Amino acid sequence: MICRSACCGTRLGSSMKAITFTDVSFRYEDEGPYAVRHLNFSVEEGEFVAVLGHNGSGKSTLARLANGLLTPDEGTICVFSTQLGEKNLYDVRKNVGVVFQNPDNQTVATIVEDDVAFGAENVGLPREEIGKRIDFALKAVGMEEYRHATVARLSGGQKQRVAIAGVLALMPRIVILDESTAMLDPRGRREIVDGVTRLNREEHITVILITHFMEEALLADRAVVMNRGELVMEGAPAEIFERREELVTYNLALPRIGIICEKLRAGGMNVGYTLDAQELAKEIAECVS
Amino acid sequence: MKDVSFGQFYPVNSFVHRLDPRLKIVFLIAYIVAIFLATNFYELAACALVLLLIVFFARIPIGKVLRAVRGVTFLVLFTTALNLLFYKGDTVYWEWGIFCVSFEGIIFSVFLALRLVLLVVCSSMLTYTTTPVSLTDGVESLLTPLKWIRIPVHALALVMSIALRMIPVLMDETSRIKNAQMARGADFESGNIIKRVKATIPILVPLLLSALRRADELGDAMDARCYTGGDHRTKYKKLRFTWRDLVAFLLGAALIAGVVLMRIYLPASY
Amino acid sequence: MRIVAEHLSYTYNPRSPFETAALKDVSLTIEEGEFFGIIGHTGSGKSTFVQHLNGLLRLPSSMKKYRPKKPKKGQTLPPKTVLTVGEFDLTDKKTDFRALRRSVGMVFQYPEYQLFAETVAEDVAFGLKNFSETKLSEEETAAAVRAALEVVGLDYEEMKDKSPFDLSGGQKRRVAIAGVIVTRPEVLVLDEPAAGLDPLGKREIMELLHKLHREWCRTVIIVSHDMDEISENCTRAAVFSEGTVRYVLPPRELFCHAQELTAMGLDVPLTAKLVSLLHERGIDIECDFTAADFCEKVLAYAAAHPKKERDEGGEA
Is residue C212 located within the same domain as residue C260? Predict the structure, then answer.
């Protein structure tokens, strides 16, 4: 089904829109508060976008709307040139993979490779093709050696990587991580963020990373901030982090390195806002003899 | 951290591991029938020998096999004791009221205990050598005829596989909640039966809520991976009948035939 | 209450293929009044250690069997295991574990998932009822619940009749903490108290713990894998790795061991990382831990070493 609404027109010559939200509103209960309100938002193909927001800002609703787990009350959502509707859900989901928060609640099978195969089996691929996809997906997340391992014995970060592989086996062009790092320890979080960055750079998969950790947004091409269901800030991550006062009003706390930058600036030292320790050390060094 | 290995898959690559799960299930059923057909020690010894061979070819350590038996020690001892005390034999050694210990009683109870042990060992061999996925695939395939009478065989098999997957998760969760409530002074070990049942509410309510939450999230995750039921699905692991399965089939058939032949030609004595 | 552990070892599933030594000969003393931190990876033994503190994991009762009275020829007697919390001797089977649990409150990871009662007040009162020797009057219970809810920053009148399942995530966690501190334990142990919260929620929880430490529980012990959290909040910290305690030091000194920590796969606190990066560039700043101290020292350094081209590197 070809989308006819204005939002989805592909502009020849420029890059293609991967996902477009046009004036989307959604609430979980009638008469309840809006989880997402008049949202206009789009992601280019091949882009890596970070969606920031405190708990309850509507950022997770965004992920569920994007692959049709929820249907908007108003507005339209287009994935590539297809408008999301009941009839094409299945085709859209092949293109939009979502990884969720809890590493224990996403795997259906006991053995890693069986779980990775699940999605590919669902779309009716032939056996040999499924085998190839498992190879590809496990390699992409660096879990080849765990192919025959028991999921229950893996660490949290490894379980999430298996979940990502399970999504990749469908060869989606867009992968959404819905707070997939929230329950992991620092090492696990790093594994995931590095993994999706590589997917974006090497496999050219469009990545939408939904998180409340600002430092995870650093590697993204673009960051957006959500508050009360609305998109309130947008720009390159570094730009966003410089608008500190604004971030605080949206209940987002600066990561520690941001606080240090700020204190140094307040003390009269001319350092820029950065979230990278190397960069900050360099800037400090430039300010002293 | 905790060991949740009751009847769980033991990952080694062996002849038995690679057999078609359908064959293993059928063989298990045949084997159980054989144990119950066996009426003397020769026949039982033949069954035990076959089982030992299977354990050997499956490369499962003996310790692991014994662990399976340890789980049912109480049951075995209990039934043995009952048979020992109540079996009315001719050669009586000791008698007191309704209890009596006789030569035949001893033989009979030992025989039953052996049967029970063989039963447990052969069932656990199935789960040790077969991954839950191929086990459910096997069950699904064997039950296919039921599809004709509109029983959702695929859905049942998937439910079984997810249940197996979630057992360790929920066991962990149970012990976590139990610890948390014990830290708040909950007492699960004393008091009468009503008090004890009541004491489990602080465990059951959070556990149930968590199971529901997990089911909800798992449902979303399955939807997101294009799950729409069993109709258009393919299977990555095709069940295939190979020469191995043929050999195993012949061995199994020989065992059953052997037991039957022994019943006919050997004198029925212990 | 002073906590003393000496030569403490613990093995899960002993003498089985799944045998795992979770603690190996751990010795650690936590003084009364400390805000103590325990850092380590998943599987480092940190959770196993704290579960001993209120007897949820017990020392194997067969321990004596392995400890012969007299040493065999040519062998020395293995050192004696000691584990005491205040006056409770946890190596003694006759210890009153209920009384111990009353004195040592334990908040597990994601404590909101242990809520079960119909109302918030009922849930908070659960521990109180379990631990009290005599039946408490309704007024006494209500007063204790009110105090516990208020100290965690919730309004008693507004909360008491609500279902705990209708609350927001942050509120649920506070109710769960109130349910543990309601019996006024002397020692409060929290396993990853800030797990899964957003940065603002994290900060609020840490503020709450400091408040509890000031007003409510003499000793607070937090288990965490977040180095920054430990370095900015604790008086002393122990680093667990592979079942052993590697260091027990105040954060200030602890983080001078940056290389060793990295080798254990742990993060180094941000300030320590910056100090070492600056050191590479020839700027020597004393090793320090809180963000505020660090900035002060950098600014002081800048004032002492002003950049020549620019009029003032740091005016301070």
Answer: yes
Retrieve residue B156's tokens. 């049942």
Rounded to the nearest angstrom, the gap between the alpha carbon of residue A153 and the centroid of all alpha carbons in its chain is 26
Q: How many CB atoms lie within 10 A of CB C74?
A: 5
Task: Kindly compute the dihedral angle of the four CA atoms of residues B151, B154, B157, B159, in this order, to the nearest 10 degrees.
Answer: -90
What percent of chain C is modeled with pLDDT above 90?
Answer: 35
User: Is the ipTM of this structure higher than 0.90?
Assistant: no
Task: Give the side-chain half-sphere CA count within 13 A for C58.
Answer: 15
Confidence (pTM): 0.79
Residues of chain C in contact with residue B128, where contact means CB-CB under 8 angstroms, are none
Q: Which residues of chain B neighbour A130 with C-beta distances below 8 Å?
A: 234, 236
Residue of C10, C103, C112, C116 best to disrupt the B interface, most CBs of B under 10 A: C116
Buried b (16+ CB within 10 A) or exposed e, C239-255: bbbebbbbbbeebbebb
The CATH topology of domain A6-253 is Rossmann fold (3.40.50)
Structure tokens at A263: 């204190």
Instruction: Using the structure block, give the residue that is written with the tokens 């066991």.
Output: B171
Do the Cβ atoms of B182 and B203 come closer than 8 Å? Answer: no
* A51 phi/psi in degrees, rounded to 5: -110, 115
Q: Are C8 and C129 found together in one domain?
A: yes
Contacts of B234 (CB under 8 A, 6+ apart): A121, A124, A125, A126, A127, A130
Q: Give the CA radius of gyration of chain C.
A: 23
Residue in A54, A253, A285 nearest the CB of C281: A285
Q: What is the DSSP string of C31-42?
A: -TT-EEEEE--T
Q: Is pLDDT above 60 for C309?
A: no
Burial class (CB in 10 A: 0-12, 13-18, 19+), B41: middle
User: In C, residues 19-48, which contact A (CB 8 Å cutoff)?
Assistant: 41-42
Strand partners, A8: none
Tokens 């993979």 belong to residue: A97
**CA-to-CA dists, residue B209 to A170, B212, C282, angstroms:** 31, 5, 57
* Residue positions counted in chain B: 270
Q: Pick from B106, B107, B102, B84: which is nearest to B92 by CA? A: B102
Answer with the one of C243, C268, C293 that is the final residue of a domain: C268
Pair (C172, C276) in one structural domain: no
**Per-residue model confidence as pLDDT tens digits over C109-152:** 999 999 999 999 999 999 998 888 778 888 899 999 999 999 99
| Domain assignment of residue C283, given as a range | 269-316
Q: How far apart are CA C173 and CA C43, in angstroms?
A: 24
pLDDT of the residue at B1: 35
Tokens 């959604």: give the residue: A26
B212/B91 Cα distance (integer angstroms) = 60
Of B213, B218, B226, Cβ closest to residue A106: B218
B162 to chain A nearest CA, in Å?
6
Query: Per the structure, how many domains does chain C have?
Result: 2
Alpha carbons B20 and B142: distance in angstroms, whole number: 12
* pLDDT of the residue at C74: 65
Tokens of C52: 């001993």
pLDDT at C68: 52
Q: Does the pLDDT value for residue B9 go beyond 60?
A: yes
Q: What token pair was written down for C110?
A: 């994601």
∠ CA A255-A260-A266, rounded to 5°: 125
Summarize pLDDT for C24-83 with one digit per residue, the tens.
889 999 999 999 999 988 778 888 899 999 888 877 644 544 555 565 666 666 677 888
Helix locations, B59-189, DSSP H: 62-70, 73-86, 103-129, 132-142, 153-183
Quote the mean pLDDT of chain C.
84
What residue spans define the domains of chain B?
1-130+240-270
Interface membership of C289 toward A (CB under 8 Å) = no
Token pair recorded at residue C88: 């409770």
- Chain B residue with minimum CA distance to A151: B165
